[in-house]
Design a protein that fits this description.
binds guanosine-5'-triphosphate, metal ion binding, seven-stranded mixed beta sheet, single chain, P-loop_NTPase, Elongation Factor Tu (Ef-tu), domain 3, six-stranded antiparallel barrel, alpha+beta
């Protein structure tokens, strides 16, 4: 069976050091990561699967490594757990990507640079997203402490504590580090292990894979390029899959007839499963998987299946081309200067909303809006359980801004 894996989201303002930290935590950029890059998986959401190991003999503080032998004493190291870092882009226009990643996170590391006032716009917005999506296992990293004197680090720590007051991160530990200079990374790993546990595997439930990427096989260097079929990449929210399993993908394929459009599920077979850079005989929840399928690569190329859900036939959630949402809206638009706050007014009939459900992004036109409930007609259907959380954004000025969440009603 493949190793249990925990998905940890890296969130925070642009340039605060998320990518550098993933690199530091991974010890070195492992082959796995370069393999991901070769396969093109890290372009939307960057994934880096790393197995943390510890040396059984080196004295405290704990000697962590990703290597199979301890660099200090040469002793064989013990596997601790595999962590999949989901490195979301900090840039404001990529907020939707961050939210689609949030749906699969078991916890998050909020990276805040100590050399800038806290909070910066995306720090605020990302924390708000974690708050309303309900991710509770959070570690705050105060990065770049090498750039500021100790007194400033303490002052900045108080800014952080003030900023997270009343949010889901109120009691999150704050770990001062330098990702670039490798300072305190071992302490961070300890705290991370404590605060973000590996989730209990839900293997007895039907396997549902949220598709984050899909591509054809013609990527040079890919470990799966020998498979004669299209490839889908994503993460299992529950259950397990095996080579040879039948697969249904929903909503599937858009079929246009003379005066109507409808979507038909796609059926195929799993040829091969890759977890990280390894070929495996079983796919389980957590971490990024790539499934080689019997699909024609023209169906999977260029992320054409991103946002869809795959699983055993007849086990998938329903496909919705409209749904009713129970709303929980924020009071103010986040990520905008505090000097000119924008109140979030009621949702109105006919307004377009950007909706993120799992890894899917769609636009819903509001067909009816009442207090705390909105009905929407979707431009592109989504496959999702009733009760799923939907992140809602509204067009404000030139971009989509997060305004709240909704829950799909029966
Ligand atoms: N001095 C110092 N520089 C750092 C540290 N961590 C990151 N940097 C630098 O800060 C810059 C931004 O780092 P990234 O890791 O790319 O930041 P990011 O948050 O991933 O940025 P986006 O993905 O664009 O949101 C780079 O030039 C890093 O070398 C640190 O601890 N100390």
């Amino acid at each position: 069976m493949s190793q249990p894996c925990v998905n940890i989201g890296m969130v925070g303002h642009v340039d605060h050091g998320k990518t550098t930290l993933v690199s530091a935590l991974s010890g070195v950029w492992t082959d796995t990561h370069s393999e991901e890059l070769k396969r093109g998986i890290s372009i939307r959401l960057g994934y880096a699967d790393t197995t943390f190991r510890k040396c059984p003999t080196c004295p405290e503080p704990q000697c962590y490594t990703v290597a199979k032998k301890c660099e200090h004493c040469g002793e064989k190291t013990e596997d601790m757990r595999t962590v999949s870092f989901v490195d979301s882009p900090g840039h404001e226009t990529l907020m939707a990507t961050m939210l689609s990643g949030a749906a699969i996170m078991d916890g998050a590391i909020l990276v805040i640079a100590a050399n800038e006032e806290c909070p910066q716009p995306q720090t605020k917005e990302h924390l708000m997203a974690l708050n309303i999506i309900g991710i509770e296992n959070i570690v705050i990293v105060q990065n770049k402490v090498d750039l500021v004197p100790k007194e400033k680090v303490i002052e900045h720590y108080h800014q952080i504590k003030e900023f997270v007051k009343g949010t889901v991160a109120e009691n999150a530990p704050v770990v001062p580090i330098s990702a670039q200079q490798n300072i305190n990374i071992d302490v961070l790993i300890d705290v991370m292990n404590e605060v973000i546990p590996t989730p209990v595997q839900k293997l007895d439930k039907p396997a549902h894979m949220l598709i984050a990427r899909s591509f054809d096989i013609n990527k040079p260097g890919s470990s799966i390029d020998k498979i004669a079929g299209g490839v889908i990449g994503g993460t299992l929210t529950a259950g397990s899959l095996h080579p040879g399993d039948e697969l249904e993908i929903r909503p599937g394929r858009k079929v246009e007839s003379e005066n109507a459009i409808h979507w038909e599920p796609i059926f195929t077979t799993i040829n091969m499963i890759a977890a990280g850079s390894d070929k495996v005989e079983e796919a389980t929840p957590g971490g990024l998987l790539a499934l080689g399928t019997g699909l024609d690569p023209s169906i999977t190329k260029s992320d054409s299946l991103t946002g869809q859900v795959a699983g055993l036939p007849d086990t998938l959630p329903p496909t919705h081309d409209s749904f009713t949402l129970d709303l929980k809206l924020l009071e103010r638009v986040v990520g905008i200067s505090d000097d000119e706050p924008i109140e979030i007014g009621k949702i109105k009939t006919s307004e377009p909303l950007m909706l993120n459900v799992g890894t899917a992004t769609t636009v819903g036109i509001v067909t009816s809006a009442r207090e705390n409930v909105a009905e929407t007609k979707l431009k592109r259907p989504v496959c999702a359980e009733v009760g799923s959380m939907v992140a809602i954004s509204r067009r404000v000025g030139s971009r989509w801004r997060l305004i709240g969440v909704g829950v799909i009603k029966a």
